[in-house]
Target: DUF1285 domain-containing protein
Amino acid sequence: MPINHPPLEPLLGYIEGDGAIPPLEDWHPPLSGEMDLCIRADGRWWHEGEPIARGRLVRLLSTILRREDDGVHYLITPVEKWRIAVEDCAFLIVDADHQDGVWTLTTNVGDRLTLDGDHRLSLDQDIPSVPVRFGLAARLHRNVYYRLVEQAESRTVNEDGAPQQELGIESAGVWQPLGRFSEEGT
Model:
């Protein structure tokens, strides 16, 4: 007896289209298993111990990636859900553009997002990251971090009652932190 899967035409439309993000929030298939796929901290994708060299394939896989409340990353289709490994953040910010008081960031898989109230930099392990979509985040690549630091200003913030200097930038009228240091410089 054949297995009756939901039609995959909607997914094929995303694959063949312009790289749009499918509606993963609407897909809730059961866990299919674990895939030997790892997104390394340097942003490279590895499958079965070999790097994935085809950029279009990485982009396609990135569009069906979701991080769930359990902190685990999954590749999701309407009928399958595969657990994968992610060493740090799923994506890297590889470019930043500033225009009219707004910073636009680009990820290593081609996503573009505006630093604003919905996409705010946060300090995780003292390295800024920014939410992208579906629980996924992007870590600032070193060259982008230094580019933003060149444009940064400092402000005094209170962290647990102790004043600290915070380095950051403003984008779309929202303060975006890049790092903290104590008033004494220690």
Remarks:
- The helical segments are 9-16, 55-63, 142-151.
- The longest helix spans residues 142-151.
